[in-house]
Write a structure and sequence with these properties.
It comes from Companilactobacillus huachuanensis. By secondary structure, the chain is of the alpha/beta class. The protein is built from ten helices and eight strands. The protein has a single domain, classed as Aldolase class I (TIM Barrel, Alpha-Beta Barrel), CATH 3.20.20.70. Strands 1-2-3-4-5-6-7-8 form an eight-stranded parallel beta barrel, surrounded by five helices. The structure holds orotidine-5'-monophosphate (OMP). Orotidine-5'-monophosphate (OMP) binds next to strand 3, strand 8 and helix 9. The site of orotidine-5'-monophosphate (OMP) has 19 residues, from strand 3, strand 8 and helix 9.
């Protein structure tokens, strides 16, 4: 099976989102969709259920970050939803990551821990967050914490995948947003890679939003990215 290109559905409006999805031929391999905070806050679980019932794979990107008990109880609820992936922030710490995994027990939902957001570069890490490590070391540190506490993988930029795999395991999933084909605007992303570079670096899946959802022809943009990614 091809490694997935996960489409980030960051739409303000559910009709706009469904119109976008209707551009994709029905017989095409089912899309892997990411529902993030923007759509989840407006449309909640019924929207997730609706897309699951249509046969899409779902990455529920809620980036949970709270005390262990709260995260565990939230994960117990999400474990009933049959989603394929869920995110928590690795900076919630070892107990919180382990609690999230415990909450998901018995489900097949993969737990992914967000390391350093791809919108943060070295300058923000040092000056704003006062983290005295370079990005590669910080991301590797958080990835090891996630690995040791039961996460199935991490979210990082593609640039850190080789060091994460070396520090954890080749089976530890590296799902990478911050993907920009050569012709795309970088926008608020700082640590970016093209689909082809992400593949060379060993990403297990790429997450792509605006280069597909804001394209004139979203389906064609998706097909082009898939071709570059699976070459
Ligand atoms: O957890 C994520 O998915 C995520 C983590 C991260 O470090 N960076 C990041 O961009 N994302 C998400 O990936 C998507 C990227 O969207 P685009 O920048 O439009 O391609 C957005 O939905 C972000 O919320």
């Amino acid at each position: 099976m091809n490694k997935p290109v996960i489409v980030a559905l960051d739409f303000a409006d559910d009709f706009e989102c469904i119109n976008f999805l209707n551009q994709f031929p029905k017989d095409e391999e089912k899309l892997f969709l990411k529902i993030g905070l923007e759509m989840f806050c407006q449309f909640g679980y019924p929207f997730v259920r609706n897309l699951r019932e249509r046969g899409y794979n779902i990455f529920l990107d809620l980036k949970l970050h709270d005390i262990p008990n709260t995260v565990k109880r939230t994960c117990e609820m999400i474990a009933q939803w049959d989603v394929q992936m869920l995110t928590v922030h690795a900076t919630g710490g070892s107990e919180m990551i382990a609690a999230a995994k415990e909450g998901l027990a018995g489900s097949s939902t993969k737990l992914l821990a967000v390391t350093q957001l791809t919108s943060l570069g070295q300058t923000e890490l040092a000056n704003e967050l006062q983290v005295p490590l370079d990005s590669q070391d910080y991301v590797t540190h958080l990835a090891k914490l996630a690995y040791q506490n039961g996460a199935d993988g991490v979210i990082s930029s593609a640039l850190e995948v080789p060091v994460i795999k070396t520090a954890t395991s080749t089976d530890f999933l590296c799902v990478t947003p911050g993907i920009r084909p050569k012709s795309s605007q970088v926008g608020d992303q700082k640590r970016v890679a093209t689909p082809a570079h992400a593949r060379e670096l060993g990403s297990d899946a790429i997450v792509v939003g605006r280069p597909i959802t804001q394209a004139q022809d979203g389906h064609q943009a998706y097909v082009n990215i898939c071709k570059e990614w699976n070459k």
